[in-house]
Amino acid sequence: MSAADGTPNAATPFAAPIPGRARKRAQALVGLSRDHHQALKQAMELKRTRQETAQSTWRRFAEFWERQGNTHFIEEECELLPAYARVADPSHQAVVRMLLEHVLIRAKVAAIREQPEPLAADLRELGIWLELHVRHEERVLFPLIEDATGMTPA
Ligand SMILES: [Fe+2]
Ligand SMILES: [Fe+2]
Questions:
Q1: What is the mean pLDDT of each run of 10 residues along the chain (154 residues)?
Q2: Which residues surround ligand 1, an ion (CB under 5 A)?
Q3: What is the pLDDT of residue 24?
Q4: What distance in angstroms lies between residue 92's CA and the mean position of ligand 2's atoms?
């Protein structure tokens, strides 16, 4: 997806993140950032999956999702974004992209779970999505929220 003039639409799910390094996180977001490190480890494993390892990779990811991933998404949707919406416009394209990605990741997890056997190609795609999602949040969304809400660095 891109705008009529050919410029990339930054709200497009899983568009390449803005290059650069994540900056020092605000204290209030340190917990979520720590979760992101775990999510990136999962993403790397998913991206490397072959069909022979798909079952065990999926088991580990499903355990991570139940223990941490799903709760992390809920915290972002139910606490972080409402806090942002109190001081800024939540229709910002970075917020829209994040929410669309949550929906698509959840749909992908549900679809894989319904398969009798996970397909390596699906797991690899999920890994790519998860990595791009985390990098978007660390490099674009979290700085936006920190600046808007006046959160101070840890
Ligand atoms: Fe997220
Ligand atoms: Fe996140």
A1: 48 78 85 97 98 98 97 98 97 96 98 97 98 95 94 78
A2: 76
A3: 86
A4: 17
Q: Find how far residue 16's CA is from the centre of its chain.
A: 12
Burial class (CB in 10 A: 0-12, 13-18, 19+), 108: middle
CA distance 121 to 133: 18
For ligand 1, the distance from its centroid to the CA atom of residue 53, given in whole angstroms, is 26
Distance 73 CA to ligand 1 centre (A): 5
Q: Which residue has the tokens 């340190």?
A: 30
Instruction: Decide: pTM greater than 0.85.
Output: yes
Given the structure tokens 């999602």, which residue do they identify?
133
Looking at the CA of 138, name the nearest ligand.
2
- Ligand 1 centroid distance, CA of 55 (Å): 25
Residue 138 corresponds to which amino acid? E
